[in-house]
Structures are given as structure tokens and as C-alpha cells.
Specification:
By secondary structure, this protein is an alpha+beta fold. Helix content is 33%, strand content 30%. The longest helix is centred in the middle third of the chain and has 31 residues, at 243-273.
Length: 401
């Protein structure tokens, strides 16, 4: 089989991928920045959803709009002209909530064999087996008010019961490098061909283990350093929290939003209903200024908490300090391996003689384990699937030397 094409076709017949339309899909939203991200949720699930930048933009719009709306409503009985200010605030708040809550999330689940599109507008589900390929193509030039930018599309390719090819857009934005890399990883995860229209190639379907492996280029989330005859591998970000932890942090995130609404309402009532005077730097200040200041401060304070907790819940990250609160480190020497995991900053180290390690594998919860016969030793906590696959192949290659 030619490794650069999905399969062989009968002589004289063009390959099937030539039947797939290569023009960009129309009617898709676009951005001049990467507004989506692909995250791992265990070894058999991938989720495509809004990026951190998209969440940040939505939160800023919602916070500014909420402050303006509350200040306008509080001032409206005395100054009816402030209704315009309140209307603008309502518009900004609606845009922010739409960005935060209205964006779709696409789940690829190999355990259930389903593709689920979770959207408040048009949710749907279909079998993963209907996906025939992942396509990366030129998305055309898009224009904004004062700028134009080149976009790139990431699409799924389906074939219906009547033999017609259909496509569904996953992303359209200006980040070419991410589109190609995400398409390659997603195609490997699904076990389908990658139709790369940007480089003019069609690559064969391959499992994760056959994805390109470069020992000198670890994936995001893995740091490497050579120390004489040892190789030190360490986590750059924390491991992906278990589902129970994700649910708890998600509840805390929603609690921050509820607390913000309650505090903002209390501040407005305090200043405008109970007529409590507001002072700034020891001097009396206008009620509008006091409302904007107090609500804005509350939004920033709770917003920081929301992004810390929400980031941990959705992206499995923690703030890095001198000692990571959670994570792992592997020191692979010629005769001995040291595997260290951190729990709340406290290290726990296992020593493994190299002769006691026959192979390195992933267990079902996406932990890296060393095996010899029926004995096993855990090398890492739960980690990102892409990092786990790279680490397994790196350590297996080192064992084979």
C-alpha cells in the first residue's frame, strides 16, 4: 500500500477522494484567531469546543454588559435618557452569554461509537463509522470591518446511503498550523484518512500508534532535558482531573456566577434603594460611579476565580509554582528509572531497575505503566492522551536500545 494515500483503486478509476468537494464550505462562522480547541477526555474521547481566547472574550462582553445594564436600570428613574446606556449593556451581555453558552461542542467517543454535536440550537448525533475522512482545506479570505485575513477549514467527510459525499465544518479560522496538526491527530484518533488540501496529499488511515513520532519534538504538556546519560521528562501542565473532580470544579464555577449576580444586585440595592452613600478615597462619590466601581470590582474578583477554576475543569491545568501542585516526572537512566508523581506538591518516587521493565503501556484510565510479566508499576498520574502516546513510544524506544 502506498503510505501517502488511503487505499488502492482499480486501474483506470480515479481514487475515491477525488470525488470529495474541495471548495470551502459556505455559511460558516470564521475568526482571525483560533477560536476552538481539541481536548482529550480519557484515551477514547476527544472534545472540540471553544478555546480559552473565546471564553475570555465572552466573559469580558458579559461582565461589561452586566455592569452597564445594572447601572443604567438603577439610574433610569431619575434620568430616562440612560435607557440607551442600559440597552447597550443588555446587548453586550447577550453577546457575551451567546459566546459563553451558545457555542457548540463536538464529542468524538470511541467507546460508544458516536459523534455527538452538543448545541443549544441544533444538537445531533450520528455513528462515528459514518465518518470517511478528515479534510483540511483553504477556507478563503474573510473580511472584517477594517481587515481581511486568510482562513483554513477543518471538515469531516461523510458518505450517505445514496453514495453522495457530504461534509460538516469543525472550524474556520486563521491558524493554518493548528488546522493541519489538529486534522492529523483527529484522523489518527478516528482511524480515517486525512485529506490535506493545503499540501495536496491524501494520507492513509492509521491508528494513534502510527502517527508521526519525533523523539526531539514532544507534544504540548511534556518537557524534556538530557542530563549526561539520563533523560528527564516532566509535566508542563497538570494531569487531566478525574470526572468527579471536573464536576466539583464545574459546580464551583457556576457558584461564582451565581455569587456575582447576588453581590451585584445587593450593591445596586444598597446604593439606589437604601440610599447608602458611597465614598471613594474618603470623598463622597456619585452613585453611578459607585455602582460601576463596585460591580466591576466584583466581576474582576470573581472572574479571576472563575477562570482559575474553569480552566482546571475544562482544560486540566493548574498554576505552576516552584513545585507543581500535581504532575509527574520520569528520570530514565541507563540502569534505573525514577518515576515521581506530585500530589499537592508532595512528591512520591518509585525506583524501577531497567531490567524489571519489559514494556511500557497505557492503562484504560490513561496512566502510563511499566510491565514485567504480571507485575506493573504506575509511572504517571492521568495525563493527556497525546502526551501519553508520545511518552509510551519514547520510553519503548529507549528500552529497545
Amino acid at each position: 500500500m502506498n503510505p501517502t494515500v488511503p487505499d488502492r483503486e482499480p486501474p483506470g478509476r480515479p481514487p475515491w477522494w477525488f470525488e470529495v468537494e474541495t471548495a470551502p464550505l459556505t455559511g460558516t462562522s470564521s475568526a482571525n484567531f483560533r477560536d476552538v480547541a481539541v481536548r482529550g477526555d480519557g484515551p477514547h474521547r476527544r472534545v472540540l469546543g471553544p478555546s480559552v481566547t473565546s471564553h475570555l472574550i465572552g466573559a469580558v462582553f458579559a461582565a461589561l454588559g452586566g455592569v452597564a445594564l445594572l447601572a443604567g436600570l438603577a439610574r433610569m428613574p431619575e434620568e430616562p435618557g440612560v435607557a440607551i446606556f442600559a440597552g447597550i449593556g443588555a446587548l453586550f451581555l447577550a453577546i457575551g452569554l451567546l459566546i459563553l453558552l451558545g457555542r457548540r461542542r463536538i464529542l468524538f467517543d470511541r467507546e460508544t461509537g458516536r459523534l455527538e454535536i452538543r448545541s443549544p440550537w441544533s444538537p445531533s448525533s450520528r455513528p462515528l463509522a459514518e465518518i470517511r475522512a478528515v479534510q483540511v482545506i483553504d477556507g478563503g479570505v474573510r473580511s472584517s470591518d477594517d481587515d481581511s485575513y486568510q482562513t483554513f477549514q477543518l471538515n469531516l467527510v461523510f458518505k450517505d446511503d445514496e453514495g453522495a459525499w457530504t461534509r460538516r465544518n469543525l472550524s474556520t479560522h486563521a491558524d493554518r498550523e493548528w488546522s493541519v496538526a489538529a486534522g492529523d491527530r483527529l484522523a489518527a484518533f478516528l482511524g480515517v484518512p486525512l485529506l490535506d488540501g493545503l499540501r495536496g496529499i491524501a494520507r492513509a488511515a492509521r491508528p494513534d500508534d502510527e502517527a508521526p513520532f519525533d523523539p526531539a519534538s514532544p507534544p504540548f504538556g511534556v518537557l524534556t532535558r538530557r542530563d549526561d546519560d539520563r533523560v528527564i521528562l516532566a509535566s508542563h501542565e497538570s494531569f487531566l482531573p478525574p470526572e468527579s473532580t471536573r464536576r466539583r470544579i464545574g459546580c464551583l464555577t457556576r457558584g461564582c456566577l451565581i455569587l456575582f449576580v447576588a453581590l451585584a444586585a445587593f450593591e445596586v440595592v444598597t446604593l439606589w434603594v437604601w440610599d447608602v452613600p458611597f465614598q471613594f478615597n474618603g470623598k463622597p462619590a456619585d452613585k453611578v460611579f459607585g455602582t460601576v466601581f463596585l460591580v466591576g470590582f466584583t466581576a474582576v474578583w470573581l472572574g479571576v476565580m472563575r477562570f482559575i477554576l474553569g480552566g482546571m475543569a475544562e482544560f486540566g491545568r493548574t498554576i505552576r509554582g516552584g513545585v507543581p501542585p500535581s504532575g509527574w516526572r520520569i528520570e530514565a537512566g541507563p540502569t534505573e528509572w525514577l518515576a515521581t508523581t506530585f500530589d499537592r506538591g508532595r512528591p512520591s518516587t518509585r525506583r524501577l531497575p531497567v531490567q524489571d521493565v519489559e514494556q511500557v503501556e497505557l492503562n484504560p484510565t490513561c496512566r502510563l505503566i511499566a510491565l514485567r510479566g504480571d507485575r506493573s508499576s504506575t509511572l504517571t498520574p492521568i495525563i493527556d492522551p497525546d502526551a501519553a502516546v508520545w511518552l509510551r513510544r519514547f520510553l519503548a524506544d529507549r528500552l529497545a536500545r
